[in-house]
Amino acid sequence: MITQTATPTTHESKQLLTVKDMALTAMFAVLIAVCSWISIPTAVPFTMQTFAVFCAVSMLGGKRGFFAVLVYILLGAVGIPVFSGFKGGLGVLLGATGGYIIGFLVIPALCLLTEKLFGKKLIVEILSMIVGLTLCYAFGTAWFIKVYTDTKGDMTLANALKFCVLPFILWDMLKLALAIVLSTAVKKRVRI
């Protein structure tokens, strides 16, 4: 009598995200929400969102950081009050400042791309976050001008930059530096 033994196949399907990845993604989506509630209301609210986005990208990397930001945006889109001022819903995303929120996705996407091209190096991470933030500003400002002009009247690029970008540059650079220092310290002690 001949018996056959089943040979295990080595074909392993790759998961997009593991359970650990999903838990970290959810945790950082919540961190972004909590940091968005810490705000000073202005034309574009001054919040700690960018700090949380930088932390998510620095601690989790581009892929998981992208999903954390995406989950945060989707939670807000369905009406959960995760945006500044405890607001939620598509109206916020389609409003004048919605472009800045959607533009947050550029930061981890660019970091993911640079990770693939240059590896995970601190200087590459910092530069990609600065470029990503600049692209977020550009997208958000174009969105702001379009929505503001359609709903309230003319808005020039100079005025949009004066209200929506220039007051935030220094603070966002400080938040980036703080996020990098904090993330580096955490990554030395905890394997994320």
UniProtKB/TrEMBL annotation:
GO terms for molecular function: biotin transmembrane transporter activity. It is a multi-pass membrane protein. InterPro entries: BioY. Coiled coil: none annotated. Keywords: Cell membrane, Membrane, Transmembrane, Transmembrane helix, Transport. GO terms for cellular component: plasma membrane. Its main location: membrane. It is found in: Cell membrane. The chain crosses the membrane at residues 22-44, 65-86, 92-114, 126-145, 165-186. Belongs to the BioY family. This is Biotin transporter.
